[in-house]
Structure formats: structure tokens, C-alpha cells
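Re: the 552-residue chain
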Amino acid sequence: MAMAAGTTGGAEEGTPTLIAGMQIRALAAYCACTMTCAYNGVVYAFPMLSVKLKAQGLSSDNVVIAGLMLQLGYGLVSYPFARFYMNKRLLGKYSPAQMDRIASIISAAMTLVASGIMIGAAAHASENDVPLSMPLFCIGFALWSAGLGVSFYQSMTIANYIFARDKALRRKAVAFNAFALGVGSLLWVVLFYYAMSKISLVNTLVTMTVMYAAAALFRIKYMVRGRFVTMPPEPSDPAPVRAPATAGVVVHDASTVVEMTSISGSVGANGASIAEDEPEKLSTVLPPPRPEEIPKVVATPRPRRIDYWSSPVVWFTSVSGFFAYGIGSVALNSLGNTAALFVPEDEVDATTFSLSITFLVWIIMSRIVTTLIYAHLNWPHVNTMWNLLLFVGMVVYTAYPTLPGAYLMACLVGFGFGGIISTLAVISTSSFPGGIADNSMNLSIAFTITSFGPFLMGLIKNAIFAKATESGLNTENFSNLSTYIFFVSTTFFSTACSMALGYHLKKAFKLEKQTMRAAALHASPPASVSEVDPDPETPMEENLLAVSGQRV
């Protein structure tokens, strides 16, 4: 039997259904999300940029602080972004697509203004042969990373929206975006070393700005939500009713007109016969469906503040992420200084590049592993595995601070750090309270807390280092006892929290499976779950509860 594809009002009969167009738009939106994450990999390529900053007069401590400001701004902007996306006035006034374009424009404005500040400061320092202005660069880095952060959280929110109807697909999509972030960071390191190392800091910043502007235009155009169909759409009219199996036709609802081109036998209860291969129109009128035949809409209630405060998953994710993300960021931002401890000055660039490549390659490897795990096995202890690797890497390096130890640290810490970032995004969007409409807030809760980790861990590490120097202790290569105890204790505590997180995630996954089995047993044909696809042309406030309905 051949049936003509459904058409929309005013469309010519026989043309493809809107599903094809929607899938293309969804693919374009997801590609824009992935491209955004890849560009944002520049945040993790900071060690290569730090070499240029030191050459322009910034001290090692100031370079580390600038890198930590970069991480802090990237994470702190998540909460204002979530409040913007959930503002009641805006939700009732603008459609989802309009909200996305506004967010993209705000992100681009912040990043471009910050780039202008940094370019101006670098040009002034170069022309007058003076060191870079630390306050200006800190402000520029914070604003620049905040703009990049808005685009990152927006891309995660839209990726979750595209795959709203299937939690397993959402986990894969978020993990793949994190993988794109790692690939982008590696590409940026290669670009810095082979292309931008030969140009000045001003020209480097200008090149980065031009590349960002091109990416921002693509994002403003395509990274928007629409009527994406990731599963067959549910009809807006009463529930579909299956025709008798002998008829060979699926009759949709009381007003559906079906075109049939190859039907043998009799159709309908009146015994009317239709000639084979003779296209005709058959209008069917069916009685209203019985109540038990109407699919149920599964809606996730909006979480209250107490739901977050009382959730062990939220607590253990945030606390573990605070320490793990902080220690990993300190290790990443210190690679340039680490290289300077072991090699002559003329070899610092090459050694920094080598350490950065090693670190970032293992970050990518961990993100590949994380993506594969969430694609094929929803294992609750993924975060624990990455924290254990981070713990071992820091113990090895702080106990045996040598150049080979630094490379081993780059491998182990990079492997654990990349996985932690990936799992943090996946857990917050799939296991925190609420549904799809709350993903932006869930991301902000996780990343706002963890964003303080790099800044505070860096300040504590510098304070311990300075105190050890004043006391005459052996501070070379982080070998003093205070620093060793600090890194070991913080990574151990992070690992312990991640183990508790795995326990609670395992309980939550068991509950999900029980819910799915119960839904399958009590589902009435022809459909067990009805999804409500939000309309991008209506105010977003009307779509929030609709988007919250999801398959567990």
C-alpha cells in the first residue's frame, strides 16, 4: 500500500510532509550547537595564550589569575542566563526562537566588547613598550568568557530541547557537545602553536575576534528552537484509532482524508469496494474515542527551591564538581609555569605546547569514552571513575615533581578532568529535579557552584606556595608538604562525593526503569505516551509545561 505524504495547509498534494523540513532545521540547530562548543574550546587552550601574555609583561601569578578569571566568568554567567530564559515577562512576550536570537546577540555583544578591550590594552602596551594592564585584561577575560559561557549554556539548552522526548538521546547529545568542546580546544592549541605563535598578541586577538564574529552570525541564524520532530508527531485532534487489520489502512481521526493508491479487497464496514491501483479519496467518520483510548500526557511538575536543597544528586554533583573542576583548572592553567620549572627559557614554548597537547588529547579521549558510555550504557559511576584518575594524577605529580611526572600528570589529570566536565553537564540536565523546561536552571546551578572552584583553589594554592616560601620550605615544583596535603585532600574529598553521587544515581536509574515498565504494562493502544510539541510561534510561557512532558 502506498500513501501520499501528509501536507500542510496550502501545500500541494504529494509534497513531503513538514517532518522532513523540521528534521533539517533541527539538524542545522544542533550543528550550530556543536560548532559553538567547538569554538568555546579556546577557553581550555589558555596555556598557549598565556605564553604570549607572559611575553608582554604579565607575571606568572597574574597569568594564573587571568586564567582563573576566565573559568570564573564562564561559569558564573550560567545563572543570569537561566533567569533570562525563565523570565515571566519575556516568556509571555517572545517565542522560543526570538528568545534564542536575543541570547545569541547578547552573547556576541559581550564577547566582541571584551575583545575590543583586550585588543586596545595589548595595542597600548605594545606601542608604549609597557607591561599589559592586569586590571583591564582581567575585566576583558571575565567579560569575554561570560559571552562564551552564554553561548555554551544556550547550546546545551537547545540540544536538550531538540531531543526532549527521549532522555537517553539527550544524554548522548550533551555528551557529544562536550566532546566537540574538547576537539575545539585541541584545534585551538594547534592553531596557536603553528600559526599564531608567529604573530603579535594584538594580531592574535584580532584573528580570534574575526573568527568569533563569523561563528556568531551562523549561530544567530540557525541556533534557534522550532517545531523540531525527533519522534513522529502526535495529532492535535482526538487520538488516532487503528482500522481493522484486514483493511490494510490506518485511519487517523474523524476528519482525515486518506489517499489510497494500492488497495485490494474491501474497505470499511459497509463493504464498499475500491478498484486496485485506482486513486480515490475516502473520508472517514469515526465515533469519539473511549476515555481509555486517549493517550495520557506525562508532565513533569516544575521543581521548587526545596526540591534542589533536598536533592542529594544536586548536592553531591555540585560539591564534587567544585573541587574536581577547581583542581583540574588549576593544573591546566599552570602548564605554562610548569614547563618553565624544568626547561631553559628558549624551550618553554615547545614544552608548554607539548604538555598542553598531551593534556587536551586526554581530555578528548575521556569525552569520547563518556559519549560511548552514555550512548550504550547508562552507568551511574562514570563520574567516580574520572575523579579517581584526577586524584591519582595529582598525587603522582605532587609527590614526584619532575618533567616525566608532569607529563604523567597531564595524561591522568587531563583524562579525569575532561570526563568530569562531560558528566557534569549530562547529570545536571538528566538527573536534576524538573524537566526540559528547567534544563537551563539546572545547568546554572551545577556550573555556578563549580565555577568558584578554579578561582578559590588557585588562590589557596598560591597562598600556600607564598607561605612556604616565607617559611624557607622547599617550594620547588610544588614539593612542599602543605601543597601536597592540599591537593591530595581536595581530590580525595571530591572522589568520595562522586562515589556517593554514583550511589544515588543508581537508585534514580532503578526508579526510572520501574517507571518505564509500569508505563509499558498500563499503556493502552494505540499509544502509551503523548508528547506535546511546543509551537515556536507562540509565547514561550505557554510551552513550558508542554515541553516538560517527556519519556523517562
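Residues 18-231+304-517 form a domain with the Growth Hormone; Chain: A; fold (CATH 1.20.1250.20).
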